[in-house]
Structure prediction request, 136 residues.
Amino acid sequence: MATTSGTDDLTQAIHRLVYDSIARTKTAVLSAVEQAFGHHPTLQVSTRRRPGEHKQRRTRRSRQDILELAQRLLDAVVADPGQTMPVLAARLGVVSCEAQRSLGILKNAGHLRTAGERRRTRYYPTASGSKRPALT
Prediction:
């Protein structure tokens, strides 16, 4: 079993060599940045939560709030067809992710159609959507 010990020693030596090489490279980079810009760069701080820290909880929106936003979105799409989500959301004063559920409801109900994919998705009213039905 001498080969297992030899393999372990070799693995540890490789790990040490890599670790030392990374440390020397990091030191050289920091020194070069300090020389070039005249100050020591700040290192990025981890944004991970520490154990015991809880994510900020948001209140859940009611179905009525979602449907009201859907109606406002439908009105905005009818008024200006072919706009993207960020434009529509900005006009209504909401964040794009808040409007996603309402747009899904409108699309599933057949009031909207989409063209394009991902960031280039544009929203258009359908024939039934342009009549501005009351959502329930």
